[in-house]
Write a structure and sequence with these properties.
mainly beta, 10 strands
Amino acid sequence: MKKDVLLTLRDAHIVDDARESYEMTTRGVFCGNDDNYTIEYDEQYDELRGCHTVLSVKNKKCVSIVRTGSYSSEMMIEQGKRHNCNYLTPYGSMLIGIAAQKVKSTVVDGCGVLELKYTIDFYGGVASENEMEITVK
């Protein structure tokens, strides 16, 4: 199944006990089925504006996020596992670790919610705690 969708992304980060969050609504494309699907959209928020993002969900348990543009990255978020990922910014490239505590997909027929909770670390020290919720309509 492939269809145009309306996405609401809610993202929150906790860095040094300071919480930052944002919400964005944009159009995107859903392709796949309930267990394995991709969601593509163009970023609209601050410095990510102009980047293209593809989220790929595999077996409702593992999420790959590939972003192209000035902030290119390939991140793997898999519940109970830690992955090393490359993150490219206009200021340089860095290797980050991502450890997921929660990956939950309740997407059915191209509509629903994808919830992620994970930490990002640099050189073994936790840099941020992150929560992301993507609603697909």
